[in-house]
Amino acid sequence: MDIKTLEKQLTTKAPAMIYLVLGTQHVLLQQAEQLFLKLIPQEQQVMNVGRYDMETTPVAMAIDDAMSAPFFGDRRLVLISKPYFLTGEKSKAKVDHDLASLRKYLQNPEPSTVLVFLAPYEKLDGRKGLVKVLKKQAVQVDAAPLNERQAKQQVVDELAGDGYQIDNSALEALVQRTNADYGLMTANLPKLKLLAYQSKKINQQDVIDLVPQTLDDNVFDLVTAVLKRDQKRSLSLYQQLLDSQEPPLRINAVLVSQFRLLIQLKVLNARGLSQGTLASRLHVHPYRVKLGLQTTRHFSLLSLENAYLGLIKIEKALKTSQRDPALMFQLFMLQYSQQKVS
């Protein structure tokens, strides 16, 4: 189930005894935690809510808490975060976990306790017996990163719940300036709502004024100008990045990263891989894959490779000489513009 379904269930039905919130979208994990906390009255939370980080605390302590009766209340809430032992990952944490007692508890949970696993991972290790038992006993809540469509809908719904509206152009601007990252989108909503407090309507200019473009966004514009061999615009955008106090090495590193991604997308897309598969395989947000594929359609693999190799040369020069970064970029653009397009 998703977070919305969880909210509906917790407000209309008695909670289950065990939940597993799985996914890497931090803001969704936080939202789920807040929903579970609402199960316990504020005045009872000190005595009836336990939080345990598995990277620092033995799971036996959480189980002992879960087995205890509520203190002057109807139920106890136990939150277990970062249960790395459910994954195939190796942790540097040197904590001795009694997983046998955890498995025993899962098979016979305390009815008055709501035990919640907050697992900030893409997946668990399904080969482990403990994971099989957990998945059988727990209600699973999805906290995986939202795609562009889902993120937009969540933002619209959240604003509507507070009595606000956002027009389509403003929503698109918010998506563009946050790379459709739901966490970044929600983080910017409070100041947008404050600005639109009286009208309750958020427009495109509000987003432009309040939501800053990331370095990746600015570099993406620069990448497009470079590929079009637009020397004037490329040099202007590069100088703007320098004027904003971005270190030349960092600017170049992001440029190299962007062109590397475009090359990967060009090659893998030619092999028939879908947008979703590309995002998963390259560990890149689907929105960046979408923009990248739109770009690669207009340029040859040779053009992408030539730009990438030219930027690698700049990186070496930046690390080994004191030459002016703007001058080096200008020379790169001159050389790149003279190379074959296809």
UniProtKB/TrEMBL annotation:
Q: Which GO terms describe its cellular component?
A: DNA polymerase III complex
Alphabetically sorted, this entry's keywords are: DNA replication, DNA-directed DNA polymerase, Nucleotidyltransferase, Transferase
Protein's UniProt keywords contain Transferase? yes
Going by the record, the broad EC class of this enzyme is: transferase
Looking up InterPro entries in the UniProt record yields:
DNA_pol3_clamp-load_cplx_C, DNA_pol3_delta-like_C, DNA_pol3_delta_N, DNA_polIII_delta, P-loop_NTPase
Q: Origin, by domain of life?
A: Bacteria
**GO biological process entries:** DNA-templated DNA replication
Residues covered by the DNA polymerase III delta subunit-like C-terminal domain: 217-336
What Gene3D superfamilies is this protein classified in?
1.10.8.60, 1.20.272.10, P-loop containing nucleotide triphosphate hydrolases (3.40.50.300)
User: Locate the DNA polymerase III delta N-terminal domain: which residues?
Assistant: 19-143
Instruction: List the catalysed reactions.
Output: DNA(n) + a 2'-deoxyribonucleoside 5'-triphosphate = DNA(n+1) + diphosphate
A molecular function annotated in GO for this UniProt entry is: DNA binding
Which Enzyme Commission number(s) are on file for it? 2.7.7.7
Question: Which family, according to the similarity comment?
Answer: Belongs to the DNA polymerase HolA subunit family.
This chain belongs to which protein, by name?
DNA polymerase III subunit delta
Q: Which organism is it from?
A: Limosilactobacillus frumenti DSM 13145
